[in-house]
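Quick review question:
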């Protein structure tokens, strides 16, 4: 009748095991900067190169394409992380979808959102 005592034996064996001592984990200092820049890259897609955007660089204003879900605070933090400058203020504008006709079929462009980032005097962002 030893099969009736199986449940009791398993509990006793589990209690007799030695406790596991966890070792403290080391934090990677260099990885924090790369993770911040990776997170920042989610909110600033790319610089928006246009005639108006190049004209605005003369008055310390830079245009970026951003995701539709990004807000002003996230964009400002992303610019700070990627380019190392603190924005004065950020303006956000929607890019409307446009209708396209090709070979008798109707389609639309993606649309999206763009952000104008204003900097203080003397600060610049190098966009290649």
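Suggested answer, residue by residue:
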């Amino acid at each position: 009748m030893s099969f009736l005592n199986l449940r009791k034996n398993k509990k006793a064996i589990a209690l007799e095991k030695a406790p596991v001592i966890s070792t403290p984990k080391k934090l990677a200092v260099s990885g924090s900067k790369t993770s911040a820049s990776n997170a920042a890259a989610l909110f600033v897609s790319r610089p928006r190169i246009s005639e108006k955007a190049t004209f605005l660089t003369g008055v310390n204003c830079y245009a970026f394409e951003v995701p539709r879900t990004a807000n002003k605070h996230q964009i400002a933090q992303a610019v700070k992380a990627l380019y190392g400058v603190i924005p004065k203020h950020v303006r956000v504008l929607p890019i409307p979808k446009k209708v396209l006709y090709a070979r008798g079929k109707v389609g639309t462009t993606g649309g999206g959102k763009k952000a104008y980032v204003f900097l203080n005097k003397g600060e610049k962002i190098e966009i290649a």
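Why it works: The two ends are 82 Å apart (CA to CA). Residues 32-119 form a domain with the Alpha-Beta Plaits fold (CATH 3.30.70.330).
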